[in-house]
């Protein structure tokens, strides 16, 4: 197949790409190599398999994702605490502590993954969607392995 026969890539909506944890620049390559909930942990690719974007923009880049994860946790705790109060009307702090600790534990893999994805998508200056990179003719060859 010649490059002229290649079809242009379908434009992927930002929310669809965010939910599927795709590369923010081309929205084709995967950011993670493992699912959200797995016993093996969450492993990120170093680079986008399609456009070659290096995900860790600078040393210590992922520390900012901790603040995003903290914001997710606060929003989830407030939401669940209000919902719990509406559903049960309980005044016992132990009910709230137990439920909220359970929610934090269950949602921690989600928060870990999507705090990094949100950081890449919306909080990184200069990193924008470039639809032309999604086309097959702009696919980057995989990096060569180092010879010892």
Automatic annotation (TrEMBL):
Pfam families membership: DUF983
Transmembrane stretches, start-end: 61-87, 93-112
Protein keywords: Membrane, Transmembrane, Transmembrane helix
Alphabetical list of InterPro entries matching this protein: DUF983
Protein name: DUF983 domain-containing protein
Lineage, top ranks: Bacteria, Pseudomonadati, Bacteroidota, Sphingobacteriia, Sphingobacteriales
């Amino acid at each position: 197949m010649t490059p002229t026969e290649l079809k242009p890539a379908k434009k992927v909506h930002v929310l669809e790409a965010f939910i599927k944890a795709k590369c923010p620049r081309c929205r084709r390559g995967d950011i993670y190599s493992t699912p959200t909930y797995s016993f093996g942990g969450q492993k990120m690719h170093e680079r986008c398999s399609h456009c070659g974007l290096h995900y860790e923009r600078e040393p210590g880049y992922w520390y900012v994702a901790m603040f995003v994860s903290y914001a997710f946790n606060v929003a989830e705790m407030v939401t669940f605490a209000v919902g719990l109060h509406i559903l049960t009307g309980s005044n016992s702090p132990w009910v709230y502590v137990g439920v909220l600790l359970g929610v934090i534990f269950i949602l921690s893999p989600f928060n870990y993954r999507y705090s990094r994805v949100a950081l890449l998508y919306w909080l990184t200056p200069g990193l924008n969607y470039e639809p032309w990179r999604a086309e097959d003719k702009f696919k980057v060859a995989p990096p060569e392995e180092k010879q010892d």
